[in-house]
Amino acid sequence: MNNNKHTLVIILLALISMTASAIDACKFHSGTAVLKGRIQNKPSNEWNIVTVSSSNLFTDQEEIHTIPVTSDGSFEGTIPLTCSQSVMVQDMGFVFLAVGDTVEVTKDAGTPEGEGMTISGRGTSVMVNQFWPVLKKHYFGDEELFIKDLPMDKIPAWKKEMVALIDKVIADIEAARLPLPSGTDSCVAEILGARLLAEPFLAIMQNYRYNMTGGTYLPRRDELGDYYDFLAGREKWLLDNPAMLFVEDVNTLVNRVEYYMMPDFIFMSNSNSLNLKKDDDVGYYQLAVQTIKSRYGIKSIGCMGQIALCHHVFKNIDDDEFSPDKMSSVFAAAIPHFSHPVVAYHALQAYRKYVKRHEGHQEAVASSSPEGDAIFQRIVEPYKGNALYIDFWGMSCGPCRRNMLDERGKVERMKDLPVRFLYICDEKESPRANAEQWMQDNAIKGEHIYVTHEEWQHLSTKFQFHAIPFGLALDKAGNVVTQNDLNNYFEEQMKSE
Fold first, then answer.
1. Distance (Å, rounded) from C-alpha 392 to C-alpha 394?
2. What gap in Å lies between CA 398 and CA 375, rounded to an integer?
3. What is the pLDDT of residues 22-72, one digit of tens each?
4. Spatial separation of the C-alpha atoms in residues 364 and 308, rounded to whole Å
5. Reduced to 3 states, what is the DSSP secondary structure of residue 83?
6. Chain center to CA of 347
7. Which of 8, 43, 99, 225 has the most CB within a 10 Å radius?
């Protein structure tokens, strides 16, 4: 009990003593921002909504928001944010939103995604959005830093170039010589400096992800120390720099740190060297943190490592088999490692919401997308009385196609049972002719449903997904259930026949 009290005191002190930074502490806390603007040359039957994807960066949970577009192309909506961050505006690109700011976006409907967009207004958000493309080109040119299919013998020299870029940015930040307009706000300069550091850092992690592991999620931990040998001495810039939360593709950055730099929080339980008692959560996290620090020769895992741990703690938050008692034990074991005030604040906020929900105090909320409700009801109505496996997929999504190929046996086994497999895709992203040809060539059975791009956006808002593949299951009464529950139910059905 005394240890727990001591830990809570440390966290509370951390929350009221943010680390020295030019960035206002409120930008690290939750709030809202306003996104408004106009779609130029808007077709009458398209661009009727703007879909915005934001994230709780500390629990790895995505939130989808929809803003209606009027007939003249104008739109305006308030976006709730866990903290200031870059959000993905579908069909436009990344837009940085700082808590409390208003950002105005103009998009030409006739241009491809990522083009034809201008950002105007005043404040931190607007300056970051406007200065970033120029600064990025100044340091890195027009080419992507990450090189796909880089030969193994070329990796050491390439990595040396990336580390040199990191060092150049660090030197320019320390000497206050980033090429920014005179009088640029120090908060803006700090955010842009972090973004510059993140680009080569992320490229290095992307290289490990794709060129050294073959794209698998099984990092070879015996190689990590050598590959990330540059971390020691640079951890305050790369691992313990809270401004990294404001980089452009922050979701990818955090997930790469979690999976390809600090996989111990996730995979350590599979290690033969783990000599701990069952359910020793305290020992588990202590060993994981010690292993990471020892491997890289660093003094702490920093705020990035703490966010990776936070992801691990909360990844099972909606798993029915993960009991509140287990969650309490896991969170208590992790608390001592949330020493960074930003991470500690959001970890406590997430756990508080978890407790309220599991104590039955969660307030009822309206549907996030009444339009999505109607579209989904129209889709499933013809299959009433059947259990449904539903996959949202797309032709450009390799894992989606692989899942469909892997499911062919299950579809065949269950063809005589009251169950249907529904494959739903966005016809704009997956033209019907191409999709049908691929499914025919690969003998993909099931029900194939094509929706318009706007209908897809409403469905993604209803089910709160941005990336695919995304799947869910309904029982015969139309209730959402886990796919495992449905699998088990039909396996029993088949055994009894």
1. 7
2. 26
3. 677 778 888 999 999 999 999 988 899 999 999 898 988 888 898 999 999
4. 30
5. coil
6. 16
7. 99
